Amino acid sequence: xxxxxxxxxxxxxxxxxxxxxxxxxxxxxACSQVDSPSRSSSVLATPQSRVNPTPQxxxxxxxQxxxxxxxQxxxxxxxQxxxxxxxQxxxxSTPVAYPTATPRIVPDPVVESTxxxxxxxxxxxxxxxxxxxxxxITDQRVRMGHLLRRAGFGASRQEIDRFLxxxxxxxxxxxxxxxxxxxxxxxxxxxxxxxxxxxHSLKDLQRMALIRMIYTQRPLQEKMVLFxxxxxxxxxxxxxRGPYMLNQDELFxxxxxxxxxxxxxxxxxxxxxxxxxxxxxxxxxxxNENFARxxxxxxxxxxxxxxxxxxxxxxxxFTGWSxxxxxxxxxxxxHDFGQKTFLGITGNHDGTDIVDIVxxxxxxxxxxxxxxxxxxxxxxxxxxxxxxLASTFNATGYSIKAVVEKILTSDEFYSKKAYRAKIKSPxxxxxxxxxxxxxxxxxxxxxxNYVTPMGQELFNPFDVSGWPEGGEWINSSTLLNRxxxxxxxxxxxxxxxxxxxxxxxxxxxxxxxxxxxxxxLDLCLDSVVxxxxxxxxxxxxxxxxxGDNSVNALNxxxxxxxxxxxxxxxxxxxx
Length: 575
Fold this sequence. Notes:
Oligomer: single chain
Strand order of the largest sheet: 1-2
């Protein structure tokens, strides 16, 4: 039977990318669900029943394709005021709505890494996006899985069971009060790596960060460290070797949930930031404006909330803030002690005064509350949601902890609009997969082999604006590398991914292939899977074992193939 034109074009696109038809559908659908995932309310309410008699179609928002993955750096050479060039849009491959049935999913594709390849832009037909479902998730296990992914990096089945016994309210308290939690195990793991403390290479920094994400008993603390690295950005490519980036990482860990004014003042004196944004060369006779500008534009108030005059006055206030012996040092003879007028307030301001004035601006509470909400819940929060968070922020002395608690206990956080509504960042995908499956690893080269090719080079973002967000995580290059990672995990090897799923199934008294499928769907997808999709997984595994549907017929290779299918599914790519 002849294929129609749309079908033939789709298959040609898959061939160009080196993907099976099913694999291309999986990732294009994953990207298409980010803005408004459409899910059956009955499935979310009772995942064990897997009832979905009328599954909603996944549709694609109309979007203009963005071009060029390479972004121009916004930080200029030392001693020159930063002039921000016109940003070049970055390409992501645009999701496609296919007119025909979903092709058969083929596991374990042969995928070549194309980290430097130009993404292929696929045209998108116009479709209508349904309104997102704002009703609440009611199933407690689904809610707990959602909480532990967003406020951490996911959890094993045993961890979820433990937190369910604890209850949702006490789990949120446990996550927030991390100072009371012993995290010495992760410290011992890091010590066992015997890394050179004087080297602090980019590879070692990335390895240490991923080990913490995977094995920490303080997941919210590490999630906040990742958040601050993406907002209060510095980069290894300019800061270089030495203690700087590691010390900044520890600063974010200490201040993960601190009041924001204290964190900003600490960051302003942080050597890595002072090198990255040229504060160390900010002299009274030649003020450098880089840090002053980014303090307002990227760290606190946003674009269009200040004037060039404010930038100049703020830069004067930070003059004399320098480095000596790799530590912050105030050079009194290089500080401008004259009167400055900043955001309408006149005085003999220094850098600390500038931070205080910025924190007093009404827009600041809205800005940081919005950043936090989008990181934990969903993009473009409603104005009333932002207003409530901003009020909490101001009423508690700029407490990040209070705002995060408000988010994690809000109806919006547990709404179906928030559930699986964000594409996992590469670090979240890698750390979350290893943590969820209970894999033992030293994470050697995980940064360079997996996370960076997916588009997130830890400790080394594109420029001062940090890493991509949302749909920008997916293009034809990063898509292939996500498949490469899923494929590597599903194959498994003792050096990188040491785990035994067969033994895990038997220890959980799983006796049949159907129960094995249910186990993996519970582990990876909260069991929120339509009946017809579950039937595909069951039929595929039964086909592998040739009619012997007992757990005794399963081995690592067969379970690995099933795992590949599950982790390649659109929902698994969404956090």
